[in-house]
Design brief:
- The structure holds two protein chains of two kinds.
- Chain A is of the alpha/beta class.
- Chain A has one domain: Transcription Regulator spoIIAA (2-Layer Sandwich), CATH 3.30.750.24.
- Helices cover 46% and strands 33% of the residues of chain A.
- Chain B is an alpha+beta fold.
- In chain B, a hairpin with a 2-residue loop joins strand 4 and strand 5.
- The N and C termini of chain B lie far apart (117 Å).
- The chains are: A alpha/beta, B alpha+beta.
Amino acid sequence: MEILEKNINNIDVVSLSGRLDAYSAGDLEKKLDSLFEAAHIQLIINFEQLEYISSSGLRVLLAALKKVKRQHGDIKLACLKPNVKEVFNIAGFTQIFNIFDTVETASKGFENA
Amino acid sequence: MTVTVTDVLIELFKTACVVIAFTYVLTRTKLFTDVLDKRFTPVNRLILIILFGALSIFGTYGGVKLPSDAIANIRDLGPMIAGITCGPLIGLGAGLIGGIHRYFMGGFVAVPCALSTIIAGLLGGAIYRFKRGEFVAVWQAILFAIFMESLHMGLTLLIARPYEEALGTVKEVILPMNVANALGMAIFAFIVRNLITERRTAVERESFRRELERTEYEMETARGIQQSFLPESPPRIEGFELAVLNLPARQVGGDFYDFIPVSENEWGIIIADVSGKGVPAALFMALSRTLVRVNVADNITASQAMQKANRMISQEAKMGMFVTLFYAVLDSEKRRLKYVNAGHNPPFVVKKSSGEVILLRASGIAMGVMDDVSLEEREIKLDSDDIVVFYTDGITEAIDRGNEQFGEARLIETINQNADLPVKDLIDRVKDDVFAFAQGQPQYDDFTLVILKATQG
């Protein structure tokens, strides 16, 4: 899995590609933790290039969400492929994550907050 | 006959090779490993002094006689090696042997030559002390040899008389002796460096192997403990057949299933999948399984029981751990299944009468995500020969070489084609199909499959 990160107007956009599974979940966890340590707690995760997510991937995202929420930050998700969205649906994670069709609408979500 | 510098160098190098071959053998002996571990005794000290002293004498005899009667030699090599590997005492001892021997051979350079050899051993020992017994780097060994031989030449010029003759000798031997001794030292240092690295690697490998063995043992124990959390065999339920498959991908896993008697005619059936894999998942599995079990009771509904269990799990859920869980209460008399779905892959019912496949979806969220959740409770009637398939995503997400998933459709297909088999055989068929599909790819996630079939009633 590849993880790319850029900062746009104080919002970090983390773009994932490939498979987010037990093997790659640790990499994402480290990346997100390093952002939190630098007090970056407004995040958009761009799933456009992500082919697959497993429960290990959901765990990392949930842990991250719990961390930023404690500091009144948020993580918004954008551009989920249907099969990835289905994993969120089944686990009920659509109830706790804000999911957007595009990165732009996700960043507007931060502006309106 | 004139002797060129190259000839001298080649001869000296031959002698040095003998010294190196000898020291190489020495480095493979217990004597030398004792030295590396600094286990010195009077006996091994004495042996080392004699051996390196003998090498020094060999260096003298293996020298090249020059037209001026001076001898280009590598007499200092033995004592230098003795000093830097074994310390000043053995260096001095070897130097004394080589030096005194040289002194009695006489000649106008006897005194400076003898003195140099003794100093070579002492200086090597000084380096050993300075480095606190740590072996020198190859380049340091080379520098030492060059410095030592230059000192040797300096002493010759200073002490040997007549000066003109001494100068002539020095001019003849300075290059070959520097090169030959430096080369000898370099090769020796290289051998010892390698030996030290090799020994360190061997020690690390051994401790790593032991650690691995211990972990393996602990994991086997953990596996046994985890297996004991799972029902030994499915219960006999009047009018139903029940079979189970549970294959963790690693020694311990995060999947679990359970059968809990709720009331006289009711059995709770649970299938669950903890996020992640291996030990963290197994620990969370043990916690979740217990908290679910204690909350199941006959005086509350399935959704109330699971909501209570969720609150307890959620309060313990650190690191984002969560568990997807499907809980069904089978009433064997009314042939009815009440169920709640906490974020788990929906099990499905294959209806015998219509061939219809019904997914057991119900709104909910995985356990451990939030303290307060609402889990919808639904129910479905079961008729004769209806089959209920509960599974974890390890089965449907098993991939072939092309990364394609086994998927829900293939699972349903396998069940449909073998619906008439006893459930035990049906389970085996699913297992075979998944493994055949995976084409020998390693099992990536835990497999758990529970199949319930209503028999003629």
